[in-house]
Specification:
Layout: H1 6-16, H2 18-28, E1 35-38, E2 60-62, H3 70-73, E3 77-79, H4 86-90, E4 98-101, H5 108-117, E5 122-126, H6 130-142, E6 148-151, H7 155-158, E7 166-172, H8 193-212, E8 214-224, H9 233-243, E9 246-248, E10 258-259, E11 274-276, E12 286-292, E13 313-315, H10 318-328, E14 341-343, E15 346-349, E16 361-364, E17 366-372, E18 375-378, H11 380-386, E19 394-396, H12 400-408, E20 412-413, E21 421-427, E22 430-438, E23 441-444
Parallel strand pairs: 4-5, 4-7, 5-6, 7-8, 19-21
Antiparallel strand pairs: 1-2, 1-3, 6-16, 8-12, 9-12, 10-11, 11-12, 13-14, 14-15, 15-17, 17-18, 20-23, 21-22, 22-23
Helix pairs in contact: 1-2, 8-9
């Protein structure tokens, strides 16, 4: 039984009435629902039960994913709360768009946005926390995304570089976390009405920078994982009143999805926003809205002097190209690597060629690998991209013991003696790593930071 604050219970009894409030509080004391999405960028080869679908989302199912499963390690599935899938799902992203996920970690929404882009356009995934930005990179990399720029910045530092640049911006704003109470009871300890109002001010600060980066007629997807009207309907009202934005209706048919309340804000059209209540039975608490910028230049941006481009980045030399080709020519590719550049020996295909000097860039596009003395060593990100297409130079580990040994970082013995050099490593047909084969031995190239303890 959750120990809900008295002030919290009184607030929602006042907002919902005694009957609805009781259903709400009762639902908070029930078990939370787990779900996963299947990666549409990769072959949909999973061993999970797919009989219980998440409403509306074709590639989402209820069920639990283990972090050691080959489906997870290969980036074939992403474990995500079902309600949290909807902000990216409702985004009107088209192939070729410029998209920003401003508060992106751990990456569930970014991976879904990347699927909609389908390798075209660009996704900027930003996270202000350096620790969480690392997890964001791992998840985007695992998903096989090659057109993302991952930044570790405050919105205020990001906006001068991307003034009116994006077609869609998703802001899953930091909030009071009421929607996570049953999933993470520790969040209850931090709750107070003062904290709700503090979060509201922080959300306004973030959104003030976000609108500077949105194109005229561009769309802002705003979401939170809280029930608080101060952070939901009131924020949407503030966006409409401050920036003359328009609330875009969202057409979803499921009876497990509720709508925002006009009486909880100060503008009309709030009933076109979405609310996810635990008593509706879909997932955890969530709020989502789409707002459209008016035509014409709206945001006033203080111009900042941006430094010149980074001279440490260079094109591949002829010798570099030979070394890269020697490794890559055996694989089936869905990109042209010849336009790659080198920076600090890292070979990559940039997702953005505009000047990013002055920003903390965690990753820009597809890292192909590292140039070492007279050789080229391919990257783990490249593996996850190659897993999107059928490949021939693959060694399957065949049994659970070999698979867990490989995840642990061990060299394993394999039957194949025909393949030599860098090969792709799979388990149950799902590609997840590079290895180096020689005389029946498979040298381990699974990244040290991803390795797990062998049971």
């Amino acid at each position: 039984m959750l120990n809900l604050p008295v002030e919290f219970k009184e607030k929602y009894q006042r907002l919902l009435g005694d009957s609805q409030a009781k259903a709400f509080f009762d639902a908070l004391n029930k078990e939370n629902k787990k779900a996963f999405r299947i990666n549409t960028l990769k072959p949909n080869q999973v061993s999970y039960d797919l009989s219980k679908k998440v409403p509306e989302i074709s590639n989402a199912y209820y069920g639990e994913v283990n972090g050691q499963d080959p489906e997870w390690v290969s980036g074939t599935v992403y474990s995500q709360d079902p309600s949290a899938m909807f902000p990216a799902f409702i985004a009107n992203v088209k192939e070729g768009d410029h998209v920003l996920d401003l508060c992106a970690a751990p990456g569930g929404k970014s991976t879904a946005l990347a699927e909609k882009l389908n390798g075209s356009g660009v996704l900027v995934a930003n996270e202000i926390s350096s620790g969480r930005a690392k997890a964001l990179r791992e998840n985007i990399e695992r998903w096989g995304v090659k057109n993302a720029v991952i930044t570790n910045e405050s919105p205020a530092n990001l906006s001068p570089h991307f003034t009116q640049y994006f077609d869609e911006i998703l802001v899953d704003a930091p909030c009071s976390g009421e929607g996570m109470f049953r999933k993470n009871p520790e969040a209850i300890k931090y709750w107070s009405q003062d904290y709700v109002l503090t979060c509201q001010e922080r959300q306004k600060e973030i959104l003030t920078e976000a609108v500077k980066m949105l194109k005229p007629n561009g769309q802002l997807i705003y979401s939170t994982c809280t029930f608080s009207p101060e952070e939901d309907e009131e924020i949407v009202s503030w966006l409409v009143e401050t920036y003359n934005m328009k609330i875009v209706p969202i057409e979803l048919a499921s009876d497990k999805i509720s709508h925002g309340k006009n009486e909880w804000g100060s503008v009309s059209g709030l009933d076109h926003t979405l609310r996810f209540w635990p008593q509706d039975g879909l997932g955890e608490g969530q709020f989502a809205a789409i707002l459209q910028m008016p035509d014409g230049k709206i945001a006033k941006v203080k111009k900042q002097k941006i430094k010149k481009g980074d001279r440490s980045t260079r094109r591949l030399t002829k010798n570099d190209q030979k070394l890269v080709e020697k490794v890559l020519d055996k694989f089936n590719l869905n990109f042209d690597w010849t336009a790659a550049v080198v920076r600090n020996d890292h070979v990559f295909l940039p997702a953005i060629d505009k000047d990013l000097k002055g920003l903390k860039i965690v990753n820009n596009g597809l890292e192909l690998g590292i140039m070492k003395k007279n050789r080229f060593e391919p990257s783990h990100q490249l593996v996850e991209v190659l897993g999107e297409l059928p490949q021939e130079d693959v060694i399957d580990l065949e049994n659970q013991d070999n698979y867990l040994s490989y995840l642990h970082g061990e060299t394993v013995r394999v039957d194949s003696k025909k393949l030599k050099g860098f090969v792709l490593v799979s388990f149950k047909g799902l590609i997840f790593s590079f290895g180096k084969a020689a005389n029946g031995t498979l040298k381990n190239f699974y990244p040290k930071g991803l390795r797990i303890l062998k049971k």
